[in-house]
Amino acid sequence: MVHDTLAWYACPVSRPSPVAREHAVSRQHDLTKPPGSLGRLEMLAIELSAMQGVNRPETRPCEIVVFAGDHGVADENVSAFPQEVTQQMVLNFVNGGAAISVLAEMNGAGLTVINAGTAYQGSFPDPVIDAPIGHGTGNIAVESAMSHAECLEALALGRRVASDLAAETRIVVGGEMGIANTTSATAVASGFGVASAAELVGPGTGLDSVGVQHKLHVVEQALARAGKQAAPLGILAELGGYEIVALAGFFIASASRNMAILVDGFIASVAALAACRINSHVRNWMLFSHASAEPGHRLVLESLDAVPLLSLDMRLGEGSGAAAALPLLDLACALHNRMATFSEAGVSGG
What we know:
Blueprint: H1 18-30, H2 40-52, E1 62-69, H3 84-95, H4 99-107, E2 110-117, E3 129-130, H5 148-163, E4 171-177, H6 181-191, H7 197-200, H8 209-226, H9 232-239, H10 242-256, E5 260-263, H11 266-278, E6 286-288, H12 296-303, H13 320-338, H14 342-345
Parallel strand pairs: 1-2, 1-4, 2-3, 4-5, 5-6
């Protein structure tokens, strides 16, 4: 057996092109505007140029990939919605009725939906990629979420999905769906040392204050049961979800293919944190879309040294916040690519 440190997910990932970055910075200084006057739109164009290794970055093709999974901890009544909603929303995604379905269509982006491990015992119809690791994780309050082997299988699922994307894909968005997955994500974030469970726990799908306190108790119970885990994969196996681990694998594999990653909200950011703890090189390929209304998200972003593009009080998940930020990337690239330089426009420089 290959030792974990030599596994695909731990292999070095190339850095974005420093030459393309330098050219992009130079072009931004030559465009007909005071340097820095377009703020973070300039930064986005520079980062995307470096990631794509080109002078003129593009935002399409873009693929939004949503992983779905269920959680045994839903048995502890930590969500305002019943577990069967996960299955129902998977069908809603591919039938075009979900927020992410509308946002994908509005953005001209592809939408891929994967059953990574819902509790549904039947088979999902096409175009759902039906590849469950299991039918819901263990209840993390009383047992491990998954075995080490299942954790590796979930990572590999994310890798396979990334590998199946078209070679010309420029940007990927990772989304998730799973009733009770904010409980799992909170436990994982605390397990990674981001902050205490009390600082991270939030209402998720809409719990009241009593519900949040109960959820905190469940998360603390899960953390006490799992004990200190030194390795990222140990934390994920004890506390994670199939969709969270698959999303982490998807991020690692996307970075290895030199694709820009636009990270969504709290749960996707926890998956991004897991990916970076497994392989620190992945962070260079990430952009962060928005600050979620979920209170723990700010702390996870800080741990990633990430500054989000938007703050819209969103907390839906699915990749919806990232999809809402995609037009900013479009604008950044259009300005970078189409604006005239001072010499082209016959305008005197500063």
